[in-house]
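quick one, 746 residues, struct below
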Amino acid sequence: MPASRRSRSAVPSSLPALRPLALAVFALGALPVWAQTGAASEPAPAVRADAADGAAAPRPAQRSLDAVTVEGARESATTRLPLTARETPQSVTTVNREQIERQSLTSIDAVLRNVNGVAVSFYDTQRPLYFARGFQITDFQIDGLPAYSNNTNQEFDTALYERIDVVRGANGILTGVGTPSATVNLIRKRPQRQFAGSVSLSAGSRDFRRAELDLNVPLNADGSVRSRFVIAPQKRESFRDRYSEDKTAMLAVVEADVGSNTVVALGYQRQKNDPKAPIWGTIPRFALDGGKIDLPISTSFSPSWTRWSRESETVYATLEHQFNDDWSLRASVARTEGETFSLRTYGYGRTTLSPPFINRLTGAGMTLYGAVGGGSETQNAIDTYLSGKLHIGGRAHDVVLGISDYHTVGRTDGYTSLSGWRYDIPNIYTWNGYAPQPYYNKTGAWSEQTTDQTGLYASGRWRLTDALSLMTGVRLTNWERSTSNFNTAGRYVSTTGVQKVDRKSTPFVGLMYDVTPDASLYASYGRIFNPQNYRDASNNPLPPVTGSNAEIGIKGNLLDGRLTGNFAIYETKQDNFGVRDTSVPAGTLPDGSSAYRAVDGTRSYGFEAELAGFVTPRWRVSAGLTRTKVERNASDLIYANFPEYLLQLSTDYQLSGALAPLSVGGGLQWQTKIEGFNIPHPILGTVTVTDPPVAVLNLRATWKFNERLSATLNINNATNKKYWANLDYANYADPRNVMLTLRAKF
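---
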């Protein structure tokens, strides 16, 4: 019997290259400096409400480095300029710690479901999909460094983060490569000077169990050396048959003031997701007779031995230095190592080219086929930038100059093929999930895809008048990728897929005009590119996909600043997208691959409107409406569906009198119909299917026993609405679930 057969997980229990440093960080972060709890308290953090539900955000702990920080200003996720949401010439939403806890948003998936303008879909349980302005969101950052990975970092746990910023539009300045959709920047928690902590315990539907521990420990009397430790284990069963998940997220960081003007930090972050019986593939929509089959929401074609595990660890360090009142330097470095393993089954018909059509009477018609895979990924990221002010013409202008370098190596291990394994499910109505587990082995062969990207970037905010500011920015990017192939003896065989892009420029320009002290008009335009590994019929490489975003809008305050709002009209484009050239037979290029052609014409346009804040001191509201109309080339298939209109409503009300400890609220997410095209049908060949408009209601209530102890009840999809999350890659969305969280702060 091969050693790998019936193994609970093919992912090693550790990533040895990072462990020694991780343990050192953990040890420092966990030192019990209890005797220092009598140190002088810090002043209460200043708070400013910017345009987002719960966007009121505390400033960092006071120290010399923060002395010149503008109240409410943050580093922009697209330009690195110090801008408030009001000053940013793009649509911005911030989800802060208070909102994360109030709504019990334990994952980035839950967060993005509450962000205006973001459409959430997924292929299956381990492959969520997020779209903005008609394009998939691929730009995920942690503290401004790229973090998105197809293999290891898809399911971020919010316990490690202070806030999440989402900026819609193209982000070519900081990422260089990507799509013109949105940037999601997750800001890690940082150590503070005083001892503090919190612990929460959650329980919910389908044996959901979760705990969070957050400890802030100063390591000397004045807190100039300080640490923070966060850990969040979670387990849950599922409404899907046999599916369950075991995940853990952890953060340990030490931060120190070096003199009066320099702050350094060293941290370690880990996340492990280990699901059992994950969904891979789709749920049949039609029976063999051509009618809808309407299978139960619990339907799964994954036996209990299937796996799809991901594990990643990051060691990171930062240095911040304030030269004077105008100029500062920030340098960040991070190394991430991740590993994956998957043993999956997919439901087809008689062959892998035949969709499954179930016999309504006998339950026959579904055949399982298997796949196994695994590998690792290592990413080294460095980013250094200088930010400051230029005093020209009697005005202070903000400028940023930076350089970044990202080096990623993704290894794909070779496994014995499972093409000969199949299992015909006798009757899906009575099937108990049994299928014989296939045998597999690592072959010893592997491939390594290496990607290098270096960029020089600059941005500036030029104050032309008291009311008018011009934002400019540009990035020059060198990018290259290649794949090295090794045989079963470990010997190098070949290099394939060589791609290279030199000195590609991606510009950004924006205007902000303060019409009144409470209202500003803006306009912006940005570009981005994305290389593609395709060749045309003449064997010439296709040019990179180019994306752009243009928008105009207005931002402002209402009710003496208690409410903030914005409205934007946008147009987003993508050209040079590679699709199969069907005029040329498949596999006829010199290397045996198929010819592709570049198509233009993918375009989305529409508007975004958002309003958030307090109508009264006790009544908080948030409302967002988005329209996205997509015009896509007929050959440009993305296998995801999103509606033309999205509506997000949220409210919370703090009661008074005897019920003063109670706050109640809820949210409504409504979308117009979605359509799926070329869906297989047993009689008609392919058809267009439509899912009607959907409204999902979430409810919540919090009881504060005192300032340090509270209990929160969340009911998601309170009406237990059954609907499709995706039509082209059909799977059901989550049904009703309930979660109760007890949170204590000390």
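Helices lie at 19-29, 97-102, 108-112.
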